[in-house]
Design goal:
Blueprint: H1 2-8, H2 17-20, E1 37-38, E2 43-44, E3 48-50, E4 58-59, H3 62-72, E5 81-86, E6 92-98, H4 116-138, E7 142-154, E8 159-168, E9 171-181, E10 186-193, H5 200-211, E11 214-216, H6 236-243, E12 246-248, E13 253-256, E14 260-263, E15 270-273
Antiparallel strand pairs: 1-4, 2-3, 3-11, 4-5, 5-6, 6-10, 7-8, 8-9, 9-10, 12-13, 14-15
Helix pairs in contact: 1-4
Length: 286
């Protein structure tokens, strides 16, 4: 059913601010251009907090990450970022915590349906097609190789994650995305690993280590749901579709996000929306 809906409703959207709200990119700036802050105290975020994951972790202040995202990456705004973390969990280069999505409490009903894997397969098919379109549009040799980590929902810890495996001009890249569900919606983490050779078990451990320091506010946790709270139109499968670039609603998939190449003023800088991580955010020395 979902596969048919995807084909019927496939549309390309104009790249806008929403396109930039979660778009990683190749950054030529050196870490020395910015001032990482030692991560020694808990940071208060929009609907929770994040504690220092290790003694060797840092974060960027708003001025620095806004400078990166707007001047270096070409975003229209840095308002979508809640925290910009450097280092931390073993093997993690960078983790961006986005501002919460408040579409309502996400149920797991569709994830527990018998046709869940069929729906995920439909999402994967359209993802592969979008990669092919992106390759043709940009002249880059881009191939979607599959899930490096198959979409997984931990219903005990209330988080969903996946990793895509992409080959770009002969180089294999990993895009890791995780989201924590809470009372009002979810909070998304975009994770840049130091290595592109991770296996599924290593990715699962990295995701768990990255999410563990985050705590929803006591009255905002998934368990704090009360009768009368807003319920999201889509369940966990719908959130997965949204994260990979497909808008999902009560009636159907409404469309696939745009595949676009933006050539900015600095010709060496590419932004590809929304599916590919391009190496790490910083070219840092050990």
């Amino acid at each position: 059913m979902i596969k048919a809906l995807l084909k019927e409703n496939l549309v390309f959207l104009i790249v806008s601010f929403l396109a930039f709200s979660s778009t990683p990119a190749l950054v030529q700036a050196q870490a020395s251009d910015y001032t990482p802050v030692p991560f020694t105290e808990t940071l208060t975020l929009s609907r929770g907090s994040v504690s220092p994951p290790s003694p060797n972790s840092f974060y960027l202040g708003r001025d620095d990450y806004c400078e990166i995202t707007q001047s270096e990456w070409g975003w229209q705004s840095c308002a979508s970022i809640d925290a910009f973390l450097l280092g931390g969990a073993p093997g993690v280069d960078t983790a961006i915590i986005e501002k919460p999505v408040s579409d309502g409490y996400v149920t797991y009903d569709d994830w527990n349906d018998a046709d869940r894997d069929e729906e995920i397969a439909a999402i994967e098919t359209e993802l592969a097609l979008s990669m092919r379109s992106q390759s043709e549009a940009t002249g880059q040799d881009i191939h979607f190789l599959g899930w490096r980590a198959y979409p997984t929902l931990d219903q005990q810890k209330n988080y969903l994650y996946y990793a895509t495996d992409i080959e770009w001009d002969g180089e294999r890249l990993i895009n890791i995305t995780a989201t924590i569900f809470d009372r009002r919606g979810y909070v998304t983490f975009s994770i840049v690993p130091l290595s592109s050779e991770l296996n599924e078990a290593q990715i699962a451990k990295m995701v768990d280590d990255t999410l563990a320091p985050y705590s929803p506010a006591p009255d905002e946790s998934y368990a704090a749901f009360e009768t009368g709270d807003k319920i999201a139109a889509a369940g966990a499968v719908g959130v997965l579709a949204t994260l990979v670039g497909v808008k999902y609603g009560k009636t159907a998939f409404a469309g696939l996000a745009a595949i676009a190449l933006l050539v900015l003023k600095k010709a060496w800088f590419l932004l590809l929306f929304p599916l590919i991580w391009i190496k790490s955010f910083f070219q840092r020395k050990e």
